[in-house]
Design brief:
single chain; 109 residues; mainly beta; Jelly Rolls; 5-stranded mixed beta sheet; globular
Amino acid sequence: MNRPTRKIISLGEKIMEEPRTKIVSQDFYSTNGETLIIVKDVETCTIELNSSTTEKIIIKTLTSCIIVPDNNRIDEDWDQLDIERGACVQFQFVEGIWYILSSDGIKLI
């Protein structure tokens, strides 16, 4: 099954394309409607979960990554989530709270 890698948003006469997937290689990034973010090629990255643009997202990191909610706490308990290289976490925004839906857990080598 082929899935689009972009979603198209119509704003009156303006047509905008937003990527559904994004590779992030910067110190800070705020989600913008993506369904998947891959973090790489940066020492540490802080990802802000932006509830005004994003409802559900998967974050896969190939570096150290700090994930922060734009409001409230993750799973009602956490101000931030620190994940290490190779980790993958899925988040869903529900009634004002970012919840962890799934995580691949701790990786040991």
